[in-house]
Amino acid sequence: MADTLTSLRSLMASHSPPLDALVVPSEDYHQSEYVSARDKRREFVSGFSGSAGLALITTNEARLWTDGRYFLQATQQLSNQWTLMRMGEDPPVDTWMAENLPANAAIGIDPWCVSVDTAQRWESAFAGKQQKLVQTETNLVDQVWKNRPPAEANPVVVHPLEFTGRSVADKLKNLREKFKHENAGGMIITTLDEVAWLYNIRGSDVSYCPVAHAFAVVTSNSAFLYVDKRKISNEVNSYMEENGIVVREYTAVSSDVVLLASNELDSAAGVKGTHSNILGNGTAESEGKKINLIWVAPNSCCYALYSKLNSEKVLLKESPLSLAKALKNPVELDGLKKAHIRDGAAVVQYLVWLDKQMQELYGASGYFLEGVSANNKKDPETKKLTEVTASDKLEGFRASKEHFRGLSFPTISSVGSNAAIIHYSPEPEACAELDPNKIYLCDSGAQYLDGTTDITRTVHFGKPSAHEKACYTAVLKGHIALGNARFPNGTSGHALDILARVPLWKYGLDYRHGTGHGIGSYLNVHEGPHLISFRPQARNVPLQASMTVTDEPGYYEDGNFGIRLENVLIVKDGDTKFNFGDKGYLAFEHITWAPYQNKLIDVSLLVPEEINWLNTYHSTCRDILAPYLDESEKAWLKKATEPVSA
Q: Pairing with 448, which of 182, 191, 309, 580 sits 20 to 30 Å away (CA)?
C-alpha cells in the first residue's frame, strides 16, 4: 500500500499541472454502487473493501471517507498511513479540501468516475480559494495497478416479456412522452440498471448485479446501446434490430455524445427520422416550444460526458427511468412475490439444517430451547462450521429453487462481534466459527429471473441474555411499527424512518444506517430513487403504490453482537376508513416469509397489537411455505411459529 501511494504521488507531481490532491471514488464510469473487480480502484489504493467510500490522496496525507455502516470495518482494514473520516461526523470531503488544501490547489479527478452534481458541488466549494478540479486524461490509479483484472466479456441476454411485463416499445414511448413535456430531444443514460431495464436486457459484468457495462442514448427518433460488441450474439443483435436499437461499441459513446450535442447523431448513424417535428436541423416545434435540450441525470451521469455538451442546452434533472423502474407493473409484482416465497423456503431449510448442526456439533440447546450451550464442540475432530461454510449451505438451498441465477449481494453471515460490523463480509481463511453462545446475524438475498430478494434474520442457538432479548425485541417492535404504518400519499421515507427507531430510542439506542431501500425486479438489490432513511435525500421522492422497499432496523453493539431484521414490502393502497384531505392513503404488504426467533423475543415488552401481528405473520408463513418443505421441515416450521402470548 505504501508503494502504491508513493507511485501515485509521483504521477501527481509529474502531471500537468502538478496535482495537490487526487480523488479516488468508489464508483465506476456508471456511478454504480457495486462495481466489477477491475473498477475497485478505491479498494486497491486503500485496502478498504466496503461498497461506499472515497479516498483522497494529497502530497503528504491519505484520508478515506465512509458512512456509518462501515466505520468499524474501515478501522480494521485501513493501515496507519490512512486517516478515517466518518461521514456525518467529520467534515465532508469538499469542505475538508476547501479548508485544508492551499489556495490555487489542483485537485485531480477521473471525470468518468465522478457525477455531474458531485463535480459541480466541489467546484462551488473550491471557488473561494481559486482551487480547481483537473480532469485527468487517464486514470492515475490504473497506471500503477499492475495486476488490474481484465475487462469482462460476458454475454448480454434478453430478459423476456413474461418477466418484464412491459415491452421496450412501450418503455421508449413513455420516455419520449416525457421528452416532449420537458422540451428535450434526447437523453444520455449511464446507469447500468436503467439501461438494462429500458431495453429488457441483462448481463453478468458486475458480481451480484445482472447488468452489462453499457451506455444508452435515446432521441425522439432513435435508440442506441453502447456495449462491447463481443457480448452481443446474433440472436441478441436481431432482438436489438427488431426493437429499433442501434448497437455501437462501448467506447463510441464519447464521440457520439458530441454528435448528439450538434444534433447530428441520428444522421451519422443512418437513422431516418420518424417524427417530422423532431430535431430537424437542431430545433423543432412541439406544441409551440423549441426542443433543443439534452436530458442528463446529474446524480448519475459522469462528468466526462457532460463536459462534452453545451451546458445551456442541457436539462439537468433526475432520470425519469429511475421512478418508472421503481413503480413495478403487475407482472413484476407477481414475480417478486413468487420469488420471495421460494426464497423464504430456502431460508427455512437453511435454519432447519443449521439448528441440527448446532445441536450435533456443539451440544447447543438449539433454535427453540433456552438451555445453556456447550462451551466446546462435542467432537473436536469434526469439520468446522464457519460463517462461510454456513452461508455456502444457504446458497445451495437457494440454488435448488426455480429461476435461481445467483446471489444478490455477498451474504453477511456473522457471529458475535462480527455481527456488529454492519456490512461484514466473511473471508474463508479468516472468518469465525459459529458459536452457540453468541448471536448469529444472516443478511442474504438472491437473484431469480422473476425477482430479487433481500432478507435478514438474527438468531441464537443457546441462551440469550436478557439484554440481547431486550435489544432484539426493540428492533422487532420498530420493524412491526414501520410495516404496519398507514400514511397519506405524498409521504416520503424520511418521514417514516422514525417509526422504526422510536422503540430503540426509548433505551437510548439507535443504528447508523437507513431503514429501507427499493429493490429491483431481477436487477440491483439496492434501487432508488426512494428511501426510508434519516438522510436528507430520503425527502426527495414520496412513496407510491407498487414501489418495493425494505424494512430493516437494527442495533449493533461493538465487540459484542449485532441485530437486524429485514423484510421486503410492497407499497399498496391503504384502504383506510376515512380519507382526510382526499389525499388517498397508503400501507405496506410484506412479501418476505421466514420466522422470527421466538426465543429472542421478550414478549412482556410487546403490546397486544404487536403480539397479534407476530402470530398472524407466523401463521401465514406456515401456510405459504408448506408446499415447498418436506415433512421434517414442516414440523420444524410449525414449532418455530408457535403462537406467543403475554
A: 191
